[in-house]
Write a structure and sequence with these properties.
This protein is an alpha+beta fold. The chain has helices spanning 59-74, 164-175, 185-191, 198-205, 219-225, 227-239, 256-262, 267-276, 323-337, 357-371, 425-430; strands at 2-8, 17-20, 33-38, 41-46, 48-52, 99-107, 110-118, 123-132, 135-144, 150-154, 207-210, 244-255, 279-283, 286-290, 297-309, 312-316, 345-348, 377-382, 398-403, 409-413.
Protein backbone atom coordinates (compact mmCIF):
# COMPACT_ATOMS: atom_id res chain seq x y z
CA UNK A 1 0.00 0.00 0.00
CA UNK A 2 1.09 3.56 -0.67
CA UNK A 3 1.53 5.43 2.60
CA UNK A 4 3.13 8.69 1.51
CA UNK A 5 4.58 10.32 -1.61
CA UNK A 6 6.71 13.48 -1.90
CA UNK A 7 7.78 15.14 -5.15
CA UNK A 8 9.54 18.39 -6.00
CA UNK A 9 10.86 20.22 -9.06
CA UNK A 10 8.74 18.43 -11.65
CA UNK A 11 6.80 20.39 -14.29
CA UNK A 12 4.50 22.80 -12.37
CA UNK A 13 5.57 21.38 -8.99
CA UNK A 14 8.42 23.44 -7.57
CA UNK A 15 8.92 23.17 -3.82
CA UNK A 16 8.12 19.74 -2.33
CA UNK A 17 4.48 18.67 -2.13
CA UNK A 18 3.47 15.78 0.11
CA UNK A 19 0.55 13.42 -0.37
CA UNK A 20 -0.39 11.08 2.46
CA UNK A 21 -2.76 8.13 2.78
CA UNK A 22 -2.63 8.34 6.58
CA UNK A 23 -5.99 9.52 7.97
CA UNK A 24 -5.74 12.59 10.20
CA UNK A 25 -8.81 11.70 12.23
CA UNK A 26 -8.86 8.92 14.79
CA UNK A 27 -12.58 8.54 14.13
CA UNK A 28 -12.29 7.84 10.41
CA UNK A 29 -14.94 5.39 9.20
CA UNK A 30 -13.60 1.83 9.28
CA UNK A 31 -14.77 0.98 5.74
CA UNK A 32 -12.51 3.75 4.37
CA UNK A 33 -9.28 2.27 5.71
CA UNK A 34 -7.21 -0.88 5.65
CA UNK A 35 -5.46 -1.80 8.90
CA UNK A 36 -1.92 -3.08 8.52
CA UNK A 37 0.49 -4.51 11.06
CA UNK A 38 3.93 -2.90 11.11
CA UNK A 39 7.05 -3.18 13.26
CA UNK A 40 5.93 0.08 14.90
CA UNK A 41 2.43 -1.23 15.64
CA UNK A 42 -0.90 -1.27 13.76
CA UNK A 43 -1.58 1.53 11.26
CA UNK A 44 -4.75 2.55 9.44
CA UNK A 45 -4.28 3.47 5.77
CA UNK A 46 -6.84 5.05 3.45
CA UNK A 47 -8.00 3.11 0.40
CA UNK A 48 -8.96 6.15 -1.73
CA UNK A 49 -7.76 9.68 -2.42
CA UNK A 50 -9.16 12.34 -4.75
CA UNK A 51 -7.64 15.56 -6.14
CA UNK A 52 -9.75 18.58 -7.04
CA UNK A 53 -8.75 21.94 -8.44
CA UNK A 54 -9.11 24.29 -11.42
CA UNK A 55 -7.77 23.59 -14.90
CA UNK A 56 -3.97 23.81 -15.16
CA UNK A 57 -3.62 23.58 -11.37
CA UNK A 58 -1.28 20.58 -11.41
CA UNK A 59 -3.60 17.59 -11.03
CA UNK A 60 -2.30 15.87 -14.16
CA UNK A 61 1.25 16.94 -13.31
CA UNK A 62 1.00 15.04 -10.03
CA UNK A 63 -0.04 11.83 -11.83
CA UNK A 64 2.67 12.39 -14.47
CA UNK A 65 5.28 12.67 -11.73
CA UNK A 66 4.30 9.18 -10.54
CA UNK A 67 4.51 7.86 -14.08
CA UNK A 68 7.97 9.38 -14.53
CA UNK A 69 9.20 7.93 -11.23
CA UNK A 70 7.84 4.48 -12.01
CA UNK A 71 9.40 4.43 -15.49
CA UNK A 72 12.72 5.73 -14.20
CA UNK A 73 12.82 3.08 -11.47
CA UNK A 74 11.78 0.15 -13.68
CA UNK A 75 13.53 1.13 -16.90
CA UNK A 76 15.73 4.18 -16.55
CA UNK A 77 17.86 5.78 -19.26
CA UNK A 78 20.71 4.12 -21.08
CA UNK A 79 24.25 4.61 -19.80
CA UNK A 80 25.67 8.01 -20.63
CA UNK A 81 22.30 9.58 -21.49
CA UNK A 82 20.37 12.33 -19.71
CA UNK A 83 17.73 11.50 -17.11
CA UNK A 84 14.83 12.94 -19.14
CA UNK A 85 13.46 14.92 -16.19
CA UNK A 86 11.09 17.81 -16.98
CA UNK A 87 11.80 20.27 -14.19
CA UNK A 88 9.98 23.40 -12.97
CA UNK A 89 10.85 26.20 -15.39
CA UNK A 90 11.05 28.93 -12.75
CA UNK A 91 14.33 29.50 -10.95
CA UNK A 92 14.17 28.14 -7.39
CA UNK A 93 17.71 28.52 -6.15
CA UNK A 94 17.36 26.35 -3.04
CA UNK A 95 16.37 23.31 -5.13
CA UNK A 96 19.85 23.38 -6.73
CA UNK A 97 18.56 21.91 -9.96
CA UNK A 98 17.52 18.68 -8.23
CA UNK A 99 14.16 16.88 -8.44
CA UNK A 100 12.98 14.65 -5.61
CA UNK A 101 10.81 11.51 -5.67
CA UNK A 102 10.18 9.83 -2.33
CA UNK A 103 7.84 6.94 -1.49
CA UNK A 104 6.78 5.32 1.76
CA UNK A 105 4.93 2.04 1.24
CA UNK A 106 3.94 -1.27 2.81
CA UNK A 107 4.62 -4.58 1.11
CA UNK A 108 5.09 -8.14 2.30
CA UNK A 109 4.73 -7.18 5.99
CA UNK A 110 7.39 -4.46 5.89
CA UNK A 111 7.30 -0.67 5.55
CA UNK A 112 9.93 0.90 3.31
CA UNK A 113 10.96 4.37 2.32
CA UNK A 114 12.63 4.66 -1.06
CA UNK A 115 13.66 7.89 -2.70
CA UNK A 116 16.06 9.54 -5.09
CA UNK A 117 17.00 12.98 -6.34
CA UNK A 118 18.32 13.73 -9.78
CA UNK A 119 19.19 16.51 -12.17
CA UNK A 120 19.10 16.56 -15.94
CA UNK A 121 22.21 14.41 -16.31
CA UNK A 122 22.64 12.27 -13.19
CA UNK A 123 21.23 10.80 -9.99
CA UNK A 124 22.47 12.77 -6.98
CA UNK A 125 21.03 10.81 -4.06
CA UNK A 126 19.27 7.50 -3.53
CA UNK A 127 18.24 5.66 -0.41
CA UNK A 128 16.27 2.66 0.79
CA UNK A 129 15.08 2.45 4.40
CA UNK A 130 13.06 -0.09 6.36
CA UNK A 131 10.83 0.45 9.38
CA UNK A 132 11.99 -1.19 12.62
CA UNK A 133 10.64 -1.04 16.16
CA UNK A 134 12.64 2.15 16.71
CA UNK A 135 11.96 3.93 13.41
CA UNK A 136 13.21 4.00 9.83
CA UNK A 137 16.70 2.52 9.42
CA UNK A 138 18.81 2.64 6.23
CA UNK A 139 19.45 -0.40 4.03
CA UNK A 140 21.62 1.59 1.62
CA UNK A 141 22.40 5.24 1.05
CA UNK A 142 23.84 6.76 -2.11
CA UNK A 143 25.33 10.24 -2.33
CA UNK A 144 27.28 12.23 -4.88
CA UNK A 145 30.35 14.14 -3.72
CA UNK A 146 31.12 17.71 -4.78
CA UNK A 147 33.59 16.23 -7.25
CA UNK A 148 30.77 14.22 -8.84
CA UNK A 149 31.86 10.85 -7.47
CA UNK A 150 29.15 8.33 -6.54
CA UNK A 151 29.41 6.91 -3.02
CA UNK A 152 27.15 4.10 -1.77
CA UNK A 153 27.02 2.71 1.76
CA UNK A 154 25.34 -0.69 2.21
CA UNK A 155 24.24 -1.43 5.76
CA UNK A 156 24.50 -4.78 7.53
CA UNK A 157 20.70 -5.02 7.85
CA UNK A 158 20.54 -5.15 4.03
CA UNK A 159 22.48 -8.42 4.02
CA UNK A 160 25.09 -9.95 6.31
CA UNK A 161 28.78 -9.37 5.62
CA UNK A 162 30.19 -12.15 3.47
CA UNK A 163 26.80 -13.37 2.25
CA UNK A 164 26.21 -13.94 -1.44
CA UNK A 165 23.63 -11.11 -1.54
CA UNK A 166 25.99 -8.67 0.16
CA UNK A 167 28.99 -9.57 -2.01
CA UNK A 168 26.95 -9.13 -5.20
CA UNK A 169 25.61 -5.77 -4.00
CA UNK A 170 29.15 -4.61 -3.20
CA UNK A 171 30.37 -5.56 -6.67
CA UNK A 172 27.50 -3.68 -8.26
CA UNK A 173 28.13 -0.68 -6.03
CA UNK A 174 31.70 -0.45 -7.25
CA UNK A 175 30.62 -0.79 -10.89
CA UNK A 176 28.58 2.42 -10.93
CA UNK A 177 30.93 4.77 -12.74
CA UNK A 178 30.81 7.86 -14.88
CA UNK A 179 28.59 6.31 -17.58
CA UNK A 180 26.09 4.94 -15.06
CA UNK A 181 25.65 8.00 -12.84
CA UNK A 182 22.23 8.51 -14.47
CA UNK A 183 20.97 5.09 -13.33
CA UNK A 184 19.50 3.85 -10.06
CA UNK A 185 21.32 1.41 -7.80
CA UNK A 186 18.02 -0.23 -6.83
CA UNK A 187 17.23 -1.44 -10.33
CA UNK A 188 20.85 -2.33 -11.04
CA UNK A 189 20.70 -4.75 -8.10
CA UNK A 190 17.35 -6.17 -9.21
CA UNK A 191 18.55 -6.59 -12.79
CA UNK A 192 21.53 -8.57 -11.53
CA UNK A 193 19.58 -10.94 -9.30
CA UNK A 194 19.84 -9.41 -5.82
CA UNK A 195 16.74 -10.96 -4.26
CA UNK A 196 16.66 -8.51 -1.34
CA UNK A 197 15.14 -5.84 -3.58
CA UNK A 198 12.66 -7.99 -5.53
CA UNK A 199 9.67 -7.06 -3.36
CA UNK A 200 10.54 -3.35 -3.77
CA UNK A 201 10.55 -3.58 -7.57
CA UNK A 202 7.37 -5.68 -7.53
CA UNK A 203 5.64 -2.95 -5.53
CA UNK A 204 6.50 -0.34 -8.13
CA UNK A 205 5.29 -2.71 -10.85
CA UNK A 206 1.93 -2.81 -9.03
CA UNK A 207 1.37 0.91 -9.69
CA UNK A 208 -1.21 1.25 -12.49
CA UNK A 209 -1.35 4.72 -14.03
CA UNK A 210 -4.28 5.55 -16.32
CA UNK A 211 -4.77 8.75 -18.32
CA UNK A 212 -7.89 9.58 -20.37
CA UNK A 213 -6.00 8.77 -23.57
CA UNK A 214 -4.56 5.54 -22.18
CA UNK A 215 -5.46 2.30 -23.87
CA UNK A 216 -5.99 -0.47 -21.35
CA UNK A 217 -3.39 -2.98 -22.37
CA UNK A 218 -4.80 -6.31 -23.47
CA UNK A 219 -8.45 -5.23 -23.12
CA UNK A 220 -9.59 -6.51 -26.52
CA UNK A 221 -7.65 -9.75 -26.25
CA UNK A 222 -9.16 -10.30 -22.82
CA UNK A 223 -12.65 -9.64 -24.15
CA UNK A 224 -12.04 -12.32 -26.77
CA UNK A 225 -10.42 -14.97 -24.57
CA UNK A 226 -11.92 -14.48 -21.09
CA UNK A 227 -15.62 -15.37 -20.91
CA UNK A 228 -15.96 -14.19 -17.30
CA UNK A 229 -14.43 -10.82 -18.10
CA UNK A 230 -16.62 -10.34 -21.19
CA UNK A 231 -19.73 -11.18 -19.17
CA UNK A 232 -18.69 -8.79 -16.41
CA UNK A 233 -18.18 -5.92 -18.88
CA UNK A 234 -21.52 -6.60 -20.56
CA UNK A 235 -23.46 -6.83 -17.30
CA UNK A 236 -21.80 -3.66 -16.02
CA UNK A 237 -22.64 -1.72 -19.19
CA UNK A 238 -26.24 -2.89 -18.91
CA UNK A 239 -26.39 -2.00 -15.22
CA UNK A 240 -25.08 1.51 -15.92
CA UNK A 241 -27.70 2.25 -18.56
CA UNK A 242 -25.38 2.66 -21.56
CA UNK A 243 -27.83 1.10 -24.02
CA UNK A 244 -25.50 -1.86 -24.70
CA UNK A 245 -27.49 -5.11 -24.72
CA UNK A 246 -24.90 -7.56 -26.04
CA UNK A 247 -21.28 -8.09 -27.02
CA UNK A 248 -20.03 -10.13 -29.94
CA UNK A 249 -16.59 -10.98 -31.29
CA UNK A 250 -15.92 -10.81 -35.03
CA UNK A 251 -12.65 -12.18 -36.41
CA UNK A 252 -11.24 -12.98 -39.82
CA UNK A 253 -7.87 -13.87 -41.33
CA UNK A 254 -6.30 -11.69 -44.02
CA UNK A 255 -3.08 -11.55 -45.98
CA UNK A 256 -0.38 -9.44 -44.33
CA UNK A 257 0.06 -7.25 -47.41
CA UNK A 258 -3.70 -6.66 -47.57
CA UNK A 259 -3.68 -5.70 -43.90
CA UNK A 260 -0.88 -3.14 -44.40
CA UNK A 261 -2.58 -1.58 -47.43
CA UNK A 262 -6.15 -1.58 -46.10
CA UNK A 263 -5.34 -0.02 -42.73
CA UNK A 264 -2.46 2.25 -43.89
CA UNK A 265 0.00 0.80 -41.38
CA UNK A 266 3.15 2.97 -41.05
CA UNK A 267 6.38 1.43 -42.29
CA UNK A 268 7.94 1.59 -38.82
CA UNK A 269 5.21 -0.61 -37.36
CA UNK A 270 5.49 -3.00 -40.30
CA UNK A 271 9.20 -3.36 -39.59
CA UNK A 272 8.53 -4.06 -35.91
CA UNK A 273 6.01 -6.76 -36.81
CA UNK A 274 8.45 -8.35 -39.24
CA UNK A 275 11.22 -8.27 -36.63
CA UNK A 276 9.12 -9.64 -33.77
CA UNK A 277 7.19 -12.15 -35.85
CA UNK A 278 4.43 -12.26 -33.22
CA UNK A 279 2.45 -9.89 -31.08
CA UNK A 280 -0.67 -7.77 -30.94
CA UNK A 281 -1.41 -4.38 -32.48
CA UNK A 282 -4.51 -2.53 -31.30
CA UNK A 283 -6.27 0.61 -32.46
CA UNK A 284 -9.81 1.90 -33.03
CA UNK A 285 -11.49 -1.02 -31.33
CA UNK A 286 -9.69 -3.65 -33.40
CA UNK A 287 -6.76 -5.80 -32.58
CA UNK A 288 -4.50 -7.68 -34.96
CA UNK A 289 -2.70 -10.86 -33.92
CA UNK A 290 0.50 -12.07 -35.52
CA UNK A 291 1.72 -15.59 -34.84
CA UNK A 292 5.22 -17.06 -34.94
CA UNK A 293 5.99 -18.19 -38.47
CA UNK A 294 2.79 -16.60 -39.79
CA UNK A 295 4.12 -13.14 -40.60
CA UNK A 296 2.28 -13.08 -43.91
CA UNK A 297 -1.04 -13.84 -42.22
CA UNK A 298 -2.98 -11.54 -39.91
CA UNK A 299 -6.01 -12.22 -37.74
CA UNK A 300 -8.28 -9.21 -37.32
CA UNK A 301 -10.47 -9.30 -34.22
CA UNK A 302 -13.17 -6.72 -33.51
CA UNK A 303 -15.41 -6.26 -30.51
CA UNK A 304 -18.97 -5.33 -31.44
CA UNK A 305 -21.35 -3.79 -28.92
CA UNK A 306 -24.99 -4.47 -29.70
CA UNK A 307 -27.84 -1.97 -29.22
CA UNK A 308 -31.56 -2.56 -29.63
CA UNK A 309 -32.78 0.05 -32.13
CA UNK A 310 -36.36 -0.02 -33.42
CA UNK A 311 -36.70 -3.65 -32.39
CA UNK A 312 -33.48 -4.77 -34.10
CA UNK A 313 -30.02 -5.57 -32.73
CA UNK A 314 -27.51 -3.17 -34.30
CA UNK A 315 -23.74 -3.74 -33.80
CA UNK A 316 -21.44 -0.79 -33.02
CA UNK A 317 -17.64 -0.63 -33.15
CA UNK A 318 -15.90 0.72 -30.05
CA UNK A 319 -15.14 4.06 -31.71
CA UNK A 320 -18.84 4.45 -32.47
CA UNK A 321 -19.79 4.22 -28.81
CA UNK A 322 -20.25 7.37 -26.72
CA UNK A 323 -17.23 8.94 -25.01
CA UNK A 324 -18.77 7.89 -21.69
CA UNK A 325 -19.06 4.24 -22.67
CA UNK A 326 -15.49 4.26 -23.99
CA UNK A 327 -14.33 5.77 -20.69
CA UNK A 328 -16.12 2.99 -18.78
CA UNK A 329 -14.18 0.44 -20.84
CA UNK A 330 -11.00 2.05 -19.48
CA UNK A 331 -12.17 1.69 -15.89
CA UNK A 332 -14.23 -1.52 -15.67
CA UNK A 333 -11.13 -3.80 -15.75
CA UNK A 334 -10.16 -2.25 -12.40
CA UNK A 335 -13.37 -3.43 -10.75
CA UNK A 336 -13.11 -6.87 -12.36
CA UNK A 337 -9.57 -7.32 -11.05
CA UNK A 338 -10.36 -6.41 -7.45
CA UNK A 339 -9.72 -9.39 -5.21
CA UNK A 340 -7.66 -11.06 -7.95
CA UNK A 341 -4.83 -8.54 -8.13
CA UNK A 342 -4.62 -7.98 -4.38
CA UNK A 343 -1.91 -5.34 -4.31
CA UNK A 344 -2.54 -3.09 -7.34
CA UNK A 345 -2.62 0.65 -6.74
CA UNK A 346 -4.44 2.74 -9.35
CA UNK A 347 -3.68 6.36 -10.21
CA UNK A 348 -6.36 7.69 -12.55
CA UNK A 349 -6.29 11.12 -14.15
CA UNK A 350 -9.75 12.61 -14.76
CA UNK A 351 -11.76 9.63 -13.56
CA UNK A 352 -14.90 11.65 -14.27
CA UNK A 353 -14.05 12.35 -17.92
CA UNK A 354 -17.30 12.02 -19.94
CA UNK A 355 -19.10 10.36 -17.00
CA UNK A 356 -22.22 11.41 -15.12
CA UNK A 357 -21.66 12.13 -11.42
CA UNK A 358 -23.65 9.04 -10.46
CA UNK A 359 -21.42 6.79 -12.55
CA UNK A 360 -18.23 8.24 -11.05
CA UNK A 361 -19.67 7.79 -7.56
CA UNK A 362 -20.73 4.24 -8.40
CA UNK A 363 -17.25 3.27 -9.64
CA UNK A 364 -15.55 4.69 -6.55
CA UNK A 365 -18.12 3.11 -4.24
CA UNK A 366 -17.72 -0.28 -5.92
CA UNK A 367 -13.94 -0.02 -5.64
CA UNK A 368 -14.29 0.47 -1.90
CA UNK A 369 -16.60 -2.56 -1.62
CA UNK A 370 -14.51 -4.78 -3.88
CA UNK A 371 -11.11 -4.01 -2.37
CA UNK A 372 -12.22 -5.84 0.80
CA UNK A 373 -9.24 -7.36 2.60
CA UNK A 374 -6.81 -6.52 -0.21
CA UNK A 375 -4.10 -3.85 -0.30
CA UNK A 376 -5.57 -2.21 -3.41
CA UNK A 377 -5.93 1.58 -3.45
CA UNK A 378 -7.20 4.19 -5.88
CA UNK A 379 -6.03 7.82 -6.26
CA UNK A 380 -7.83 9.97 -8.81
CA UNK A 381 -8.15 13.50 -10.13
CA UNK A 382 -11.51 14.99 -11.08
CA UNK A 383 -13.23 18.21 -12.17
CA UNK A 384 -16.72 17.12 -11.13
CA UNK A 385 -17.22 19.12 -7.93
CA UNK A 386 -20.30 17.04 -7.10
CA UNK A 387 -17.86 14.35 -5.96
CA UNK A 388 -16.89 16.62 -3.06
CA UNK A 389 -19.60 14.96 -1.04
CA UNK A 390 -18.98 14.03 2.59
CA UNK A 391 -21.79 11.48 2.43
CA UNK A 392 -19.74 9.55 -0.14
CA UNK A 393 -16.20 10.42 0.99
CA UNK A 394 -14.31 11.05 4.18
CA UNK A 395 -12.73 14.47 4.54
CA UNK A 396 -9.30 12.78 4.70
CA UNK A 397 -9.84 11.34 1.20
CA UNK A 398 -10.12 14.75 -0.51
CA UNK A 399 -7.23 17.00 -1.52
CA UNK A 400 -7.17 20.44 -3.16
CA UNK A 401 -4.48 21.54 -5.59
CA UNK A 402 -3.88 25.01 -7.00
CA UNK A 403 -1.14 27.26 -8.36
CA UNK A 404 0.23 30.32 -6.63
CA UNK A 405 1.23 33.62 -8.24
CA UNK A 406 4.65 32.16 -9.11
CA UNK A 407 3.11 29.30 -11.11
CA UNK A 408 3.88 26.61 -8.54
CA UNK A 409 1.36 23.87 -7.75
CA UNK A 410 0.52 23.37 -4.07
CA UNK A 411 -1.38 20.55 -2.42
CA UNK A 412 -3.58 20.89 0.65
CA UNK A 413 -5.72 18.24 2.37
CA UNK A 414 -9.42 18.97 2.95
CA UNK A 415 -8.84 17.82 6.54
CA UNK A 416 -6.99 21.12 7.15
CA UNK A 417 -10.36 22.88 7.10
CA UNK A 418 -12.92 22.78 9.90
CA UNK A 419 -16.38 21.84 8.68
CA UNK A 420 -19.43 22.91 10.64
CA UNK A 421 -22.25 20.44 11.15
CA UNK A 422 -24.83 20.89 8.38
CA UNK A 423 -22.51 23.08 6.30
CA UNK A 424 -23.06 22.94 2.54
CA UNK A 425 -19.59 21.76 1.56
CA UNK A 426 -20.09 22.06 -2.21
CA UNK A 427 -21.40 25.63 -1.92
CA UNK A 428 -18.51 26.55 0.38
CA UNK A 429 -15.99 25.12 -2.11
CA UNK A 430 -17.50 26.97 -5.09
CA UNK A 431 -17.47 30.18 -3.04
CA UNK A 432 -13.71 29.77 -2.59
CA UNK A 433 -13.81 28.74 1.08
CA UNK A 434 -11.14 26.04 0.51
CA UNK A 435 -9.30 27.60 -2.44
CA UNK A 436 -8.51 25.53 -5.55
CA UNK A 437 -11.23 27.16 -7.70
CA UNK A 438 -10.65 29.10 -10.94
CA UNK A 439 -10.52 32.89 -10.56
CA UNK A 440 -12.26 34.24 -13.65
CA UNK A 441 -11.07 37.74 -14.34
CA UNK A 442 -13.21 40.56 -15.72
CA UNK A 443 -12.94 41.90 -19.23
CA UNK A 444 -13.08 38.53 -20.97
Amino acid sequence: MLLKYIVSNFMSIGHPVEFSMFPTSENVAEHLVRKIDTKAGPWSILRRGGFFGPNASGKTTFIKSLRFAKRFILNGPKSGKGTGINQFRGNIEELQGKSLFQFMFHTQDDVYEYGFSLGTDQVHEEWLMILTETGLEPLFVRQTSQEGKTQIEIESRFAEEGSKERNLAEVLKDSIGENQKNQLFLYKMYDNGVKRVESIIEWFESLKIIFPESEVRGFFLRMDKDDDFREFVLNSLKHMDTGVTGVSIVSNVMDFGEFVEKFHIPSGIVSQIEDNKNGILTFAGRYFMFGEGEKQQTTLVQIKFEHMLNGELVPFNVEEESDGTQRLLDLLPILFSLGKNRHDIYFIDEIDRSLHTKLSQYLLREFLKGSGDTDSQIVFTAHDVNLINLEEFGQDEIWFIEKDSEGESHLRPFSDFEIQKGQNVLKAYLNGRFGAVPLIKGGV
